[in-house]
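User: structure tokens for Flavoprotein involved in K+ transport, please.
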Amino acid sequence: MVLAKIVIIGAGPAGLLLAHYLLRRGKYQVEIYDRRPDPGEF
Ligand SMILES: Cc1cc2nc3c(=O)[nH]c(=O)nc-3n(C[C@H](O)[C@H](O)[C@H](O)COP(=O)(O)OP(=O)(O)OC[C@H]3O[C@@H](n4cnc5c(N)ncnc54)[C@H](O)[C@@H]3O)c2cc1C
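Assistant: Done. Predicted tokens:
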């Protein structure tokens, strides 16, 4: 089965939650990118 690839820009709470829900569906390959080396920090 070929998984649809989803790219999420931003590893804040919104991006991580989206990745969580997409991965739970089992139909998607998720990649997350962030401009900061330490996402989640202010
Ligand atoms: C000083 C401060 C204190 C806070 N304290 C609290 C608290 O105590 N409790 C609480 O519940 N909330 C707090 N908040 C609010 C909380 O941080 C936000 O509600 C929450 O982070 C929003 O999540 P988000 O995923 O929408 O955005 P963000 O957390 O901003 O995540 C967005 C991510 O996208 C990345 N990004 C943006 N543009 C690009 C780009 N062009 N390319 C790649 N990456 C990119 C950023 O680096 C960031 O990691 C605080 C906010 C601030 C500013």
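User: Anything notable?

Assistant: The first strand starts at residue 4 and ends at 9.
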